[in-house]
# Entry
Amino acid sequence: MRLFSQKPNLVINRDQLVIIIGLVIIVALSWAYMIHIARAMDDDMSMAMPQMMAWSWIDWWSMFLMWTAMMIAMMVPSATPTILIYAKVNQNRRQNSLAYVSTSVFLFGYLLAWTAFSMVATIGNWLIHTQGFLTGMMGASTSNILGAALLIAAGIYQWTPFKYSCLNHCRTPLGFIMTEWKEGKLGAITMGVKHGSYCVACCWLLMALLFVLGVMNLLWISLLAGFVLLEKLLPQGLWVSKISGLGFIAWGVILISVNYT
# Structure
């Protein structure tokens, strides 16, 4: 049984334009929420206090929402090619009276993977904060050793075969759709989760660098989002990973040297 009635192309039609507009709105709302949180931090001194403070359930929920919004804002743009190809395949199936699933179901699965990561990041945020290693609940690391360890770990990871394998899955959306296709809504969610899991495995240490750069530093968040986009979309994306890895390692070594001088 054929999955596709014809080879999907990347020409943007009306349906895909609607999807692009929807994705832009989702990303824009996520950025708007983060900007709102950043402004709220300026008015709430308790979020900027470095001492150990017990989190309330509101703190936990707010931090989880912040990480989730941040991951949506950073990662949905780089997943757009895969989302559009998935939409194109389903459009072809619909036109040929075959079973199809809304693209939103696939997107939901993708975001589930990053939501799970956001929960883990929230727990990490709490652990680091309670040890007094952050300038505030959403600040940068106060420990050069912790910062150096994360930078060097991220730099080494950029050179690992596992990183390249996950990155290649993210860089070849058509191959992913054709080899991982599953029928039905559950299949679409499973595909979304699997693609999201590849992206998480590819970028989790890059996201962890926000503990060094500033959890709610909008400039660094923007730069990291741009870097992830280039890494996944540029033909030389693998070299972008390698060169950045060396840069992270050098940065980490500098932090260590500063700590002991």
Observations:
- Residues 57-95 form the longest helix (39 residues).
- Residues 4-8, 47-51 have pLDDT under 50 and may be disordered.
- Residues 14-259 form one domain.
- The chain is about 75% helix and 0% strand.
